[in-house]
Amino acid sequence: MLKYIFFRLLAAIPVLFFVVLITFILVRMAPGGPFDEERAVPPQVLENLNKRYKLNDPIAVQFGDYLFNLLKGDFGPSYKYPSRTVTELIATGLPTTVELGLYALCFAALLGMISGVFAGLKPNTWQDYTFMSVAMIGICLPSFVLGPLLILLFGIQLEWLPVSGWGVSQGDKILPAITLGAAYAAYVARLTRGGMLEVMSQDYIRTARAKGVSNINVVVHHALRGALMPVIAFAGPAAAGLLSGSFVVETIYQIPGLGRFYLQAAFNRDYTMILGTTIFFASLIIFFNFIADILQAWMNPKLRQSLSK
Amino acid sequence: MLKQIGLLAIAGMLVLSACSKKQQTNVEYGNQNQILFIANGDEPQALDPHITTGAPDFHVISSLFEGLISLDPKTLAVEPGAAASWDISEDQLTYTFHLQPQGKWSNGDPVTAQDFVYSWQRALSPALGNQYAYMMYYIENAEAFGKGEMTDFSQVGVKALDANTLQVKLNNPTPYFLQVLDHHTYYPVHPATIEKFGKMTDRVSPWTLPGNIVSNYAFKLKRWEINKVIEVEKNENYWDADVVKLKGIQFFPITQQQVEERAFRSGQVHLTYTPQLAIEKIATYEKENPEVLKKVLVYSNYFYIFNTTRKPFDDVRVRKALAYAVDREALVKRVTKGGEIPAYHFVPPDPAGHSPKSYFTYDVEKARALLAEAGFPNGEGFPAFDILFNTHDNHRKIALAIQQMWRDKLNIQANLMNQEWKVYLNTQQNLHYDVSRKAWIADYLDPSNFYELLLSYGGNNDTGWKNTEYDKLVEGAQREQDPQKRFELFEQANKIIADEMPVAPLYFMSDINLVRTNVKNWYQNVLHRHPYKTVYLETKAE
Q1: What is the ipTM of this complex?
Q2: Chosen from B48, B131, B453 to mutate, greatest number of chain A CBs within 10 A
Q3: Which residues pair with B210 in a beta bridge?
Q4: Under DSSP, is residue B98 helix (H, G, I), strand (E, B) or coil?
Q5: Closest Cα of chain A to B194: distance in Å?
Q6: Angle between helices B393-410 and B279-288 (to 10 degrees)
Q7: For A130, nearest residue in chain B (alpha carbons)
């Protein structure tokens, strides 16, 4: 198992290297530079700016410099925000993205598990069809559609919740968390339903019922644990997805998270910021997948045995 | 089961109702506490007046810093700012500014003439990379210093005669020089603060962050959370602090027009600050809330440029035919709908006196004749071409309308070419387009702003068109002191534009903002300048 963990960690290094290399090449290939403005920058000024950021050096030298600084943990200065470094900006946006991701995850887990359990307990009834239809809509409806719909209903029509911002007014976290978590809630609901159906047909459940255990006790103490195994396996990639995939929701609700920085960096050709956030998100995804793999191996003795060989 | 679902629904409702409309909105809080909430478009890239270029940046910077002069919010007339008064020499070349005796920085230090010398040296220094350094080239030797051809700043025409007196020498008489001083590149910075966090010309410096920055206007920076909010609070050390009623301003970086409008509607902001409201919303506000819809013509123009280096747009007859076949009245009435004025000349009428003549009008017959003369009778043989524009709903709608007009009236096929902002700029600047949209908003109140755009050597001339006669006329007008003679020279330049038609003027833009009725002393004006020191919130109206 330790050997497996070691090699998984080792494999992450070339993956990250290629992420950096490909991103570096792609951002430089994109038309337009970080200092292109509607009002043409005088040539002397552009020359000075390029000199300041060493953009006149050969591309290989620039890449080498970048890697060297990266090894020292320095992502460089942001081109767009001259008063801050990329590290500072990531540190600024990350807590918001994590907070949003956590709320969305809680929402997804709570709603998904509850509706999955109800649907699983009454298979092929109208309740089951209702919950699963809603779950299907949740999966199919992209956040850029769901977000404005929720805003229209709860923000504009009912005036219950604020429609943009983060931490500036009460309740401004509810709609973004629902928008981001809806698709995941739907997945969790379907996974839980499947798990419940499987577990509820097991002998030990029948035995428990025969012994006169109440319905609620059967579900909570006997069935739920087994039914939620697929959900736990899904939690790792879901967490990575929630953290790295929030840029649409952050844009819709004007949330100052890392996803929005990422999007803006791309539009601004803020080379260092694009690279910094890409590396960060790539590391995050690698890390969560790694954790999910380890968890799966830990929970599945067969897999663990095959890895030990 | 139904009981359980019911309980769940009730729990959900309780959570939502905890945040019900009974809670105070930003606007309600602001009204009670004299805090103005503004939707500011985008996140400022910097609060350093010598680095920044964008309008959202200026909106915040102009709450923190004050130049030598200020502009009247109603008339845009020059009035005292950091300078209490000034003298101009007879030859119009030397300006002597007498600073406010009580002028102080937010940390209590006096604002001195030497601070301005230091600041202007910084703004001009090539190492800093100030993209607006050229705005200072009116000053003697400033251009040589700015281009790195001269390194001794004492040769530049800026001198502190004493702590309170600043002398500025110009290359040529420049009638609008006082106007230009309101531009942020002329704002002073606090030398000790700059030096504390780096060198004078350090572009990457934390000196503008909260807790570090020292400023000289009515407000000082309190909070700056990127992509979230920028908050400024009243600066009690400001020389004219007694007139300042607002206790603070909060700027929200809301980039999308629809989100901005929703923020206004839901009471999150007192006003929107981006140049234009979403077109679809204008009619609704005109009908339902006309009192909050503020439309004003700005000193600006919206036009299409032709790539004159490409066939068939190298033929002036083709360019004229395309320009004459656009129904501008229909464009502003049915497409833009924001009170814009159809443009039959390139430069907008100048509130100070220059009113360019129109040498053409909407004339389909003439356009067809010109096209036939150019070898394309009834549009036959005219190659399909692209209309380039950057991603924006309004630009697309305008391009669609013009595409239709050219197809219907001239029988020629234009395709729409939408590009992301930086790609669009790159395509335009490298002349890789056929026809492209462009717009210009003036930095100061003078026609030079616009005529300079088409100078042969101008960095912003993306048409490939060059005309030495035009260059001479514009340069002459810039030096001319007699307003009447200046306007005559500009008029000749205007005639050349109409004769050569490197650009097709479409309309003069209007600023469309939503402003709550209790925001007082907030006047719409052609330069979109809103000095904050006299603005306040009337509590009863909301």
Answers
A1: 0.75
A2: B131
A3: none
A4: strand
A5: 12
A6: 100
A7: B5
